[in-house]
Specification:
- The chain has 531 residues and is an alpha/beta fold.
- Helix content is 35%, strand content 20%.
- It contains 21 helices and 18 strands.
- Helix 4 (121-132) runs parallel beside helix 6 and helix 13 (356-371) runs parallel beside helix 15 (396-409).
- The protein starts with 16 loop residues before the first helix and ends in a 15-residue tail after the last helix.
Amino acid sequence: MLDRPEKPAETKPLTWQPELEELRQREAFAREMGGPDKVRRQHDAGRLTVRERIEKLADPGSFHEVGAIAGKASYDDKGQLVELTPSNCVWGRATLDGRRVVLVGDDFTVRGGSADATIREKPLMAERMANEFRLPIIRIIEGSGGGGSVKTIETTGRANLPGGVGGTGLFNYTTLNLSAVPVVGLGLGSVAGLGAARLAASHFSVMTKKSAMFVAGPPVVSRLGKPVTKEELGGWETQCKAGAVDHAVETEEEAFDAARRFLSYLPSSVHDVSPVLPCEDDPERRDDKLMNAVPRDRRRVYQMRPIIESVVDRGSFFEMGRLFGRSLITGLARLEGRAVAVMASDPFFYGGSWTFDACQKAVRFIDLAETFHLPVVYLMDCPGFMVGLEAERNATIRHGVRAMAAMNQATVPWCTVIVRNAFGVAGAAHQPANRLSLRYAWLSARWGSLPLEGGIEAAYRAEIDAAEDGAAKLAEIEERLNQLRSPFRTAETFWVEEIIDPRETRPLLCEFARMADPLRQPVPSRLQMRP
């Protein structure tokens, strides 16, 4: 009789449910961040937590977190998980207005965002994903942004060499991404050290007016001399006027809106071009107010921003760095739905002359346009470089020639409209000198090697002194020279191509944007963008 095989013992189906439950437990610990007390302290200070910020910034339900359960865990005697303190960096990918982006944020509820709770690979991986997948990155910064703490020496038992082995990657990508993808920095608390560097190393930075940014905080600085408050040292007025931060807003929600709007003008990377959006504003629109925008009295100033708003698509002008280098206005706008970079003089500040900080502003803005293939429109009213003792002490001419170099190195399409003044070396820096660009002059335009005011008395001193009525002689010479300075006389020799009715400005600029559109090549610039 044949042996029958034994019937196997019945067993329960094997599943991975225990591991799934542990994963969910760890994720729950991560969502608690620094714990209820720390979260409450964040809210009591009027600030959102990093997870609340991401939820408000990203399209609903689009955030896919990476590395959520990384952190410091503790276990009982049986090796079972007791608690998990997550890393103070939260990052992942999401969509903003349907566009995929990388979001990386500091969790201030866990050790104030300092190095003691940092896993360096998390922010580094966020930067690498943005770079290699060609995605815009938004840095939500609070604290030192993964930087050091004096307690680090005790907690690790050693001192870290800044940028040493293992630390160079993040420092590299902090600036490398400026030449690859749009980078936005949001300063939403006290930002110091590496956090301040990451905020400054962006194409567009925003801070809330309750925030502050500094290399080192008041306790450190006060030991070096006069005590300072957080606001005095790194408040929004200090940093926006210095040009370290572009923009300040009242609320975090406003900061998120500013980030979304800035990104809407740019491509996702330097390997693409900005999309053309639908436009309901008539490209042939002519605004009669432009005929009276510039006063006939050359000593009177006027408002440039209404002129900008009049010639670009309605409501499309997005200004950047308003409190820095104030004689130069910079911002993004659209012409018939096409994104352009707009520079304009502001005669309310130093008559529109280029100061040392206005030159710095021009360099950075032209670099931005060149990096992301944005055509440039320059509405010019520049009487020259700023002169005087302060201008010399600030090396204005050196900053000025850097701005000229940036302009000459730019390859993007360029159109200049001379609204009123174009004098001196700074007057010459109104378009790239090595290639064709479009140029128009308003009826109010005037130019020369230097303004007549102040120069006549020096040039005609002997004639004025010999006259019976010196003041009358001066007025006579000035009237004679002004007739010779007519822009129509310049146009006779083709030194200026077109003098236009100001009301024709928008139609001509829209035509420029259409002509420039096929010239925007999605090829990385040969020049590296600098902060």
